[in-house]
């Protein structure tokens, strides 16, 4: 087995996965920020517990293993104590974590321009002082510069040329995360989930995911479970649905919009064309067709291929 590639940021480190003891039927939710992570975590909770209100906050049921806010040993112990089917969050691509045939890996995807707009607003909502306290970083000697206007920031994000191992929230990092999973999509335990498909047919996608995870849900239970996975329901229960409690200035603001198209609303036609030119240099055409329009590009059928 190849040694996983190491991905590090100021508050996450994929090396924390090394030596993690998987169980049969574990679920790993591998995403980049703002691609539907919390949505898929909630769907997994609803399918596993089969009740509209999961028994504990998402952050407790589905810990983010590579996050540095808690010691690795503490997170391992938390997961070892869980008696339910485990569903573990990571922001690391599949080539950065140990892969096990007993485990199902759910990889989420979303239009990169929508991801970027969400990242911009998400960044402003993070309590940086609290985050530094939890990960043991000193206070900066000078205040950080203010974010530029969203339009300007978005153009810089599109043009940025970064090593994914050092900046996964960049466009190259996001594209790499999805491309790596796309190349593995023929494997039976690799499942790609698209944000826009969840938006278009939440009930159908939840039933499809239940099938891929081998979970049987009684017919009478479905309406309440689907309602509990809607944006309105999750945003209305932000105190228990936010993925990292205590790190946001506003838990309610974590659920900001819940629909697609924000990136294209901000950019001109020429700027959108420049984005597509840039993306075409980073990923294969079939993956990009699915990523940008899952209903029009190469779609994944019910077997996941």
Description:
The strands form two sheets. The chain has a four-stranded parallel beta sheet, sandwiched between helices. The protein has a single domain, classed as P-loop containing nucleotide triphosphate hydrolases (Rossmann fold, 3-Layer(aba) Sandwich). The radius of gyration is 19 Å and the shape is globular. Helix 4 (112-125) crosses helix 6. It is α/β, with parallel strands linked by helices and 305 residues long. 44% of the residues lie in helices and 8% in strands. The longest helix is centred in the middle third of the chain and has 14 residues, at 112-125.
Descriptors:
Rossmann fold, four-stranded parallel beta sheet, two-stranded antiparallel ribbon, alpha/beta
- In sequence order, what are the helices and strands, one letter per element? EEEHHHEEHHHHEHHHHHHHHH
**Helicity level:** 40-55%
Level-2 CATH architecture = 3-Layer(aba) Sandwich
Per DSSP E runs of 2 or more residues, the count of β-strands stands at: 6
- Count the domains: 1
How many DSSP helices? Answer: 16
Strand coverage percent: 5-15%
Gross geometry: globular
CATH topology: Rossmann fold
End-to-end C-alpha gap: 24 Å
Largest sheet descriptor: 4 strands, parallel
> Class, according to the CATH hierarchy?
Alpha Beta
Mean pLDDT: 89
Low-pLDDT windows of residues: 301-305
Cα Rg: 19 Å
User: What structural category characterises the helix and strand content?
Assistant: alpha/beta
The CATH superfamily label reads: P-loop containing nucleotide triphosphate hydrolases
Task: For the largest sheet, list the strands in their spatial order.
Answer: 4-3-5-6
């Amino acid at each position: 087995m190849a040694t996983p590639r190491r991905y590090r940021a100021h508050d996450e480190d994929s090396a924390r996965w090394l030596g993690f003891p998987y169980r049969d039927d574990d679920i790993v939710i591998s995403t980049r920020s703002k691609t539907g992570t919390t949505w898929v975590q909630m769907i997994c909770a609803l399918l596993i517990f089969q009740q509209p209100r999961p028994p504990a906050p998402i952050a407790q049921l589905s810990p983010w293993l590579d996050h540095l806010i808690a010691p690795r040993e503490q997170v391992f112990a938390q997961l070892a104590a869980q008696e339910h089917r485990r569903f573990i969050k990571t922001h690391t691509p599949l080539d950065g974590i140990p892969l096990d045939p007993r485990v199902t890996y759910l990889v989420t995807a979303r239009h990169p321009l929508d991801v970027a707009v969400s990242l911009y607003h998400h960044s402003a909502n993070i309590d940086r002082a609290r985050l530094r306290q939890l990960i043991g970083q000193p206070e900066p000697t000078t205040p950080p510069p203010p974010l530029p206007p969203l339009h300007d920031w978005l153009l810089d994000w599109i043009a940025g040329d970064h090593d994914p191992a050092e900046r996964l929230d960049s466009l190259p990092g996001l594209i790499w995360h999805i491309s790596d999973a796309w190349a593995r999509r023929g494997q039976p335990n690799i499942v790609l989930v698209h944000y826009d498909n969840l938006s278009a047919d939440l009930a159908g996608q939840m039933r499809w995911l239940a099938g891929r995870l081998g979970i049987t849900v009684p017919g009478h239970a479905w309406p309440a479970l689907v309602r509990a996975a809607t944006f309105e329901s999750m945003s209305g229960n932000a105190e228990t649905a936010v993925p990292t409690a205590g790190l946001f200035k506003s838990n309610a603001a974590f659920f900001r919009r819940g629909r697609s198209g924000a990136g294209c609303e901000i950019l001109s036609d020429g700027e959108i064309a420049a984005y597509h030119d840039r993306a075409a240099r980073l990923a294969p055409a079939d993956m990009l067709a699915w990523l940008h329009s899952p209903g029009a590009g190469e779609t994944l059928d019910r077997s996941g291929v």
